Every structure is written in C-alpha cells, then in structure tokens.
Amino acid sequence: MTNMTIFWIISLSITLLAGGFLLRTAMAAAPVYGADEQPIRVPHYEPLDNDILLEAIAFTENWDGESTGAAGERGPWQMLLSTWKNYSTEWMPYTSTSWKKPEPQRVLHAHASWIRDQMERRKLPQTAYVFALFWKSGYGRVVNNYERSSDKAYAQRAQNLYTELVK
C-alpha cells in the first residue's frame, strides 16, 4: 500500500468514528420530552397572509405612482413585464389606478401563490423575509444562494413591515 492510500484509510476511519460519536451525542442531547414531561414543541411559523405580504412589498418598493424601474418594472409592486406575461395576456398597467383593477390583482395573487408554492416545495421557511427575497431577487438567485446584500436588506424591510401590518 502506498502512503496516500494509508492516509485516506486513516482519514476515513477518523471521520467515521467522529461522525458516529457526534451523532450519538446529538441524539442523547435531544430528548423527546422536557423536564416537566411535556412534549418539546418544534418551532413553526404563523401562516402568511398573501394580502398583507403584497401590501408590505408595495410599501417596501416605495413607487411614486408613475415611473418605470431601470429593468422595466411597473406598478406599486415593481413587477417585470416578463413576470406579468406568465399570468396574463392583457396589457400591463402603467398608472396607479389601473393596478387596482381585477386583472392586475389576479396576476399579483397568482404570482404570490407561485412564490409560496416554491417556498414550500424547496422546504424553505414560510416567512415574509424569504417571500420578499423571492420577489426581489428572483427564483434563480434564491435557490442558488446568489442574493445580493441589497436584496437581503430589502427582504428585512419587507419582513419588518409585514410584522407591523399583522399587528
């Protein structure tokens, strides 16, 4: 046997022994019942409300009512035309009053539902923060962990607004 083979065998043995020790330690440290014999509760998130999520996103975007974003985003939610076309064959509205009509509201809720489905499918936490990351960064950036720091700051602002709006 070469020295390299012996090295790999020893490294693998140490890793397996340490892994088994850590697994046994973790299992021993995680009792099923607490000291007062009550089941330990797994942390969970309150169900999100899509209407409040969309309201938080609109506040976070801070749209002036008429302008178009640098990438062509429009409306209070700064939606891209490509996203709009995924859900509608109608023209995308330009003015603030047009966004209150049924078709834009349907598109917004359809896109919000799609994001929530992706969050669930990927087993991501159902939080306003993760939702806002999807909204701002896009699916590809979120699932590949390529969010920019500005996107994370945006998501934190949306989370804070959502928390305030829920109260």
Short description:
This protein has 2 domains: 1-42; 50-166, Lysozyme.
Polypeptide structure, described:
- The chain is mainly α.
- The protein folds into 2 domains: 1-42; 50-166, Lysozyme (Orthogonal Bundle).
- It has helices spanning 3-29, 50-61, 81-85, 102-121, 128-137, 139-143, 149-166.
- α2 (50-61) packs across α7.
- The figure for the number of domains is 2
Q: Output mean pLDDT.
A: 77
Radius of gyration (CA) equals: 23 Å
The percentage of residues in β strands lies in under 5%
Query: Which regions have little confidence, pLDDT < 50, spanning 5+ residues?
Result: 11-34, 39-44
Helix content bin: 55-70%
Stated plainly, the CATH topology of the largest domain is called Lysozyme
Element-by-element helix/strand order: HHHHHHH
**How many strands, what sense, and barrel or not for the largest sheet?**
none
Structural class call reads mainly alpha
The CATH architecture designation of the largest domain is: Orthogonal Bundle
Shape: globular
Distance between the termini: 68 Å
Number of strands: 0
Number of helices: 7
Features:
Lysozyme, 167 residues, mainly alpha, 2 domains
